[in-house]
Records
---
Amino acid sequence: MKDVWPDAASAFYFDYHARLVNTVISFLGLLSNIFHFSILIRKSLRSSPVFSMMFVICICDLLQLLTQTQNDIKYILEFNQPDFCLGFDTYYATALTLTMETLGGFSMLVSSCLVILVALFRSLSIKFAMSKWSSTLAKTSTARKTSLIVIIISAMYNLSATHFKYKITPKSDDAFCAFSFYTGASSERRLYSASDGHSSTNAILLFTLFDGLIQIFQLIVFIFTSLILSRFIKEASSMKMMKSKSDRQAEKTEGLILFTLCSFFISTFPIIIANFMLPLFANLQIIPLILIRTLTISTMLQTINAATHGWVCLLMSSQYRAVAKTAFSPDHSVNAIAPAVEPSNASDG
C-alpha cells in the first residue's frame, strides 16, 4: 500500500489548490448570502411560500459556507506543516472537524430537501390545479410547516449518523498516515481520528441505504418536476398576448424554481455518482484517483451553488428585484411597491 500513496500525491495537491479557490468562493458567497438574507427577511417576501422556503435555504447556505470555510482554512494552514498527517489530528481539532462535518451535512440535507420540495409542491399545484388540496400546497403556512419538519428530521438523522458511525479514537502505531509518509514527516503529537471502525456493519449499511434512497428520490422528483415546469413555461410563453401581470409573475416564479433545481442537480450529481461507486472499491487498498477528484470538484460545485442563490433570485424574480431595490432606496417603501409586483394570489410566490 505504501508504494501506491506517492502516486496519489497529485490528487492531494489538486485538493489543496481546489480548497484555496473554494475558500475565496465561500467568502464571496457569505457576503452574497448576507445580502440575500437581508432581502428575504422583508415582510412582502415572507408572505410567499416560495420565498419562505428560500429563506430557510439561505440560512442553510450560510451555515454550509461557514463550515466549509472553516474546514478549508484549517486544511490549507496545516497542509504544508512538517507534521501534517492526513486523516489524523489533535483530539479537540478532530472533535471540531467532526462537529463541522455534522453541521455541514445537516445544512446540505435541509437545503437539498427544501429545493426538491418547493419544486414538487409547485409542480403538483400546476398538475392538479383543480383539486382542493393543491391550494393547500400553495399556502405559506404549508411551506413553513414543511420547513420545520425537514429541519427536525434532518437534525435527528445527522446526529444519529454521527453517533452511530463515528467515534474519536487515538491513532495506533501501525496506522498509515498518507501524506506524512509522502513528505517524510512524522508527528510527535498524540493524534486522533474520527473513525467509523467501531460501527456495526448494520448501522453503516442502514445509513448508506438511506442516503441512497434520498438521492434516488431526489433524482425522480428532479425529472418529474423539470418536465412539468418546463412544459408550463413553454405553454405560458406561447400565450404572451393573453397573459395578465399575475400570469407573468407566476411564469417567472416557475422559471426561478426550475433554474434553482437545475443548478442544485448540476452541483450534486457528481457526488451522487461517486457515492454509488465508492462501495465498489470499499475492499480495495486505494480509491481510484478519478473519484477523489470527482468529490473535490463536487464540493466546489456545491459551494458555488450555495453562494449564488441570491443572484439567481435577483436575475429570475421581478418581485425579488423590486424588494431589493426598495430595501436600498430611502425614497420608496417596500409596502408601497409590493402590491404592484405581487400576483393577486400572494401564495403563488
---
Amino acid sequence: MFKPPAASFGAAAPRNWFDQGGKAYARFRPEYPPELAQFLASAAPGTALAVDAGCGNGQLTVQLAAHFHRVQGADPSADQIAHAVAHPRVAYACAPAEALPVADHEAQLITAAQAAHWFDLPRFYAEVRRIGAPRAVLALISYGVPQLDPALNPRFSRFYCDEIGPFWPAERALVDTGYADLPFPFEEQSVPALGICKTWNLEALLGYLSTWSAVRSVREAAREDILQGFAADLTALWGDPAQSREIRWPINMRVGTL
C-alpha cells in the first residue's frame, strides 16, 4: 500500500492514505469553483434541464442545481452513484454517456466534467444531438495537472511524468492537453479563464492522488516501491503533515452550441 512513514505522521501504525473507490473519490476530488456553473448556465438557452454525463459523485451536478430547475446526473459506475451528493433538484442514474436517460430535445445544457476522454465520442455526440434542445450547449470540462508550491513541484513532476507516467492510460494525454485534440463538431464558444484552488494538508493531497487511475495501475503491477518512495520524499519535503499548502489546477473547456 501507499503509506508515508508512520513516524512522520505521529501515528502508532501506518495508515492507508490511498483508499480506492467512490468513497475516496467523493472525499478527495477537488470541487469546481462556483463561477464554472454560473458561466455554463449563462451560456445555455434556458434553465429547465441540465444533464451531467459521467457525473461521478456529483461534484459539478450539484453545483448546476443552483441554476437549473432540474439536473440529471448519469454515470456507468454504481459505486460512484452510491456516493453521489443528494440534492432535491438532482436525479441520478447508473447509465453510460452514450445512452442517457433523457427525453429527446429536452436538455438546455449537457456537461461532461473530467470524463469525456473515456467516452465513445461519436455515440456520445449522437446522444447529445438527440437530447439537446434547440441551441443547447455542450461543455467538455477538464482540469489539468495540479501545481504545487516550488518546494514540492519538482519532485511531484518527476512522480507524475516519469514514475507513474507509463501507467497512465492513453486517454490521459487528452486531459493533459485540455481536450484540444478531441474532435468537437459544434459551434465553439469562447470561455473564461477559470481554475481550482485548494488549501490542503498532506493527507488530502495523497488521498486525491489515490483516485488516479495510474496509481491504481501501479498497485496492480506490484510496483508499490514507486509509491513508497514518492510518499517518503514528499513527506520529508512537506514538513509538518498538518501544514496546509496551496494547490492549483487550471480548468480547460470546450464549449459549443448545437
---
Amino acid sequence: MKTILRKAENRGFANHGWLQANHSFSFASYYDENKIHFGALRVLNDDIIAPKMGFSTHPHDNMEIITIPLGGELKHRDSMHNEWQSILPGEVQVMSAGKGVQHSEINGSVQEHLSLFQIWIIPNKQNVEPRYDQKKFNQEDRKNKLQTLVSSIEENHEGSLKIYQDATLSRIDLDKDKTYSYTLKSKNHGVYVMNIFGNVIINDQILKTRDAIEVTQTEKFIVNASEDSQLLFIEVPMISL
C-alpha cells in the first residue's frame, strides 16, 4: 500500500474577502506541480462564502462537478433551469457539464456563512448532454457504515447520484474507537480520503480535521477513529493527464 499524507495547513489558500478558499489541488492562482490531480480527481475546494455573496454566471464543459454543502444554504442556477434551487447540508449536488453549461452559485442566506466542498472529476465521456441532479442523504445512514453518495452512471447502484466516470464518493461517521475496513473497486483505483472532522489513523498516519491521505496500490485499508470523526472517500481511476 502506498500512502501520501496531505496536511490541512499545506493546502493552497486564497482570501478574497467574501470567499475563504482552501485548495487541495492546483486551482486558479494556486499552483503546486505535485498537486495537479489525484487520478481522475482534479479539484477539491473547501470554501467558506460570506452571506449574499457567490460566483456569478460562468461556464464549464467536460467536467463532473459535485458540491457538498456542510453548513448554510447554497443556491444554484444554470442554463438548464431558470429558477434558483437550494441545496442544504445533508444534500449533494452533481452537474455533468458535458458539451457546455453556464451556472451561478451563491450563499442563499443574508446572515450565515456558507461552507462547502466542491469536487471536480474528469469524465470518461466527452461532450455529453449536460445534466443536473441533487439528493438528500440521511445522516443516520452513515453512522459507523459507508454511505454511497455518487457512483458511475453505468453502475447499477440504487440511491446514489450518477456521474460519467468510474468513481465513487462516500461518507462515514465513525464513533470514537470504531474501525472501518474500506475495499477498493480495483487495483487501478485509488482513494483520496478527506477527514472532514475528528481524528483518525490510516496506515499508522494520524489525520486531524481537514487532513487528507492518498491511498493507492492496495485492495483495502483500515480506518481507526481516535475520536468521533466524519470522513469523505473519493475513489477514482488512477488515470494520467
---
Amino acid sequence: MERRKFIKNTFKSLPLLASSSSLFALACEDKHIPGALDKTVVIVGAGISGLAAAKSLQEVGFKVIVLEAQDKVGGRLRTNRSLGVAFDEGASWIHGTRKNPMTDLAKEAGMTTFETLDESQKSYDVGGVLRNTELYQNAEDEFYKILKNMMKSGKANESFETVFNKLYPEKSNDRLWKFLLSSYLTFDTGDLDKLSSLLYYEGEEYGGAEVIATNGYDNIPNYLAKGLDIRLNQKVSKIDYSNQKVSLYHSDGILSADFVLVTVPLGVLKASVIEFSPALPNSKQTAIQKVGMSSVNKFLLTWETAFWDDVQYISYTPEIRDKFNYFVNVKKYSPNHNALMTFAYADYARVTETMSDAQIIAEIMNHLRDIYGKNIPNPSQMLRTKWQSNENSFGAYSYTAIGTEMQHFDDLAAEVNNKLFFAGEHTEKDYFSTAHGAYISGRREADKIIQVFK
C-alpha cells in the first residue's frame, strides 16, 4: 500500500543523506571535535529523529542525554508482539526503497521486509459483490488524474472536500470514490474537510518498491539507541532558554544543557505540554497552529483459520467513509499467522477511541461478514491503537491543512538563539508525515548543532 503514491515523483538529492552507512561514516570522520566533550546536548524524545541526532552528536564527541517520556524508545515506531506476530502500531512500511536512507538502516538494524504489491488486491462492494477489476482500475486512474490537476481549482480558504464536491458532485456519494478518497488520500494526509485544496499534492517521494516490516519496525530505534544515555519515563514540562545555559525541567529534576533538541510530535507541541521560556517566536507558534495533525488508528485481528482471499489487500466500500474499508493480509508476509490488519481514519479514527474492543470487533465483522458470509467466526484476539488520545503524540502525523503554508515546515525546523533546535517529521518540508522524514530531520539538526559549535 503506497502511502504517498500520488505525490510528485521527484527527488531532491541531499548529499549528506545518501545512506545511513555513509552518514555514520561521515560522522565518524569528524570525531574528536575540539571542545565537544565539554558541551552537553539534551534531546527531548527518543523517537527516530531524536535517536538519529543523538547518535551523530555522540560520535563527534558531545555529551548527549536523551529524555524520553515513555517506558521505551521509538516514539511512534512501536511494535506489539503480544499475539506472536509483529504488529507495528505506527510506521509499517518503507515508502520507496531507492535512495531512501531507511533502506540501509533497516538492513543494519536487522529489520526484515516484504515487498507489498498494490496489484494483489480484490475490491468488494456492499452485499459482498466482487468489483470488476477493470472498473476499479479505471476509477483509480481517474482518481490520480484528478489529484494531479484539482489544485488548479483550489483556494486558500477552502478544503479539498469542498472543492472536490463542487467539481465532482456525482462522485461524492459513490461508494468506490468514498473508498479511494479515504484509503488513498485521507490515510496519506488528513481530514478532507480540513485538508488544503492547494497543498494536498506537496511532498517528495523515493522511487523503488514499497516494503513492509515483517519482524518489527522497532528494530530500527532499538538499533540506534545502543550506547546512548537514554533516560526513560522522563516527561519534560518546561524548557527555559533565557540564560546562557538551557534548563530542562523533567520528572527527576532539572538538567542544564548547552544545546537542546526538541523532537516531540507536532500534536504534543499543539497541546502545549511543554512550557517554553521565553515563549517561542511568533513564526514558530503560528506554524504549530497552522500545520495539521492527522488521526489514524490500526487494528490487528487474528483467527485460528484464514477465510479470506489469498491476496495482499482486500478493500470494502461501505457507505461510511474512513471506516474499516481496507484490510492488509498479514498472512502474505507472515505465513504462520492468520491475521488481518485494518484501519480507521480522521473523525472515525477518533470515534474508535471511545469504543470498546467488543464494539470495534462487531463493526469490523459486519464488513467481513458482508464479504465472506455470516458464518465466519469472530477473531480470536485483537490489538488496537489510540493515537489521538495518546498524550505522547496526540495524533498520527502532520499534513497540509487549510491555512498551512510550506514555509511553516521550515519555521517548525528553525533553531532559536542557536541553542534550541527542533526535529521530527513535521519539520521536514519534503518528507513530512513519514518515518524517513523524521530520520532525515534528526540528522539535519545534528549537523546544525555541529556547525553552530564549530
